[in-house]
Amino acid sequence: MLQNIGITGIIMILVLVLILFGPSRLPELGRAVGRTLFEFKSSARELVGDSKDDEDSAKKID
Known about the structure:
By secondary structure, the chain is mostly helical. It contains 2 helices and no strands.
């Protein structure tokens, strides 16, 4: 679905966000999105690290 959005679609979405939230709330909104992405990536890294640890301990047992 998102692969069909072109440059004009992205610009229209950005203009709509600017109209809805206003210029004063955009930095706050950007920070919230950034924090959410950071937490998601950190959690994903932890899960991948945990699965690798499980594989390593399983190899040591064999």
